[in-house]
Amino acid sequence: MQTPKETVPTSLLTLTLGVVVTLFSLWFGQNHGLMPEAVSEQAPLVDRFFNLMMTIATALFLVVEGAILFAVIRFRRKPGDETDAPPIHGNLPLEVFWTAIPAVIVIGLGLYSVEVYGEMGGFENSGGGMMMSHSGHPTHAIRSADQPSALMGSAIAAPLAMTAPDLESAADPLLVDKGNVQPDVPNPKYGFGAAPDAMGKPADLVVDVLGLQYAWIFTYPDSGVVSGELHIPIGRSVQLRINAQDVIHSFWVPQFRLKQDALPGQPSQLQFVATQLGDYPIVCAELCGAYHGSMRSRVIVHSEDEFDTWLQSQIAQRAEATPTVALSATATRDTDLLAAYAQDLGVTPAVLNQLPH
Ligand SMILES: [Cu+2]
Question: Where do the DSSP E strands lie in the chain?
Answer without folding.
Answer: 190-192, 205-212, 215-220, 225-227, 230-233, 237-244, 249-253, 258-262, 268-273, 278-284, 296-302
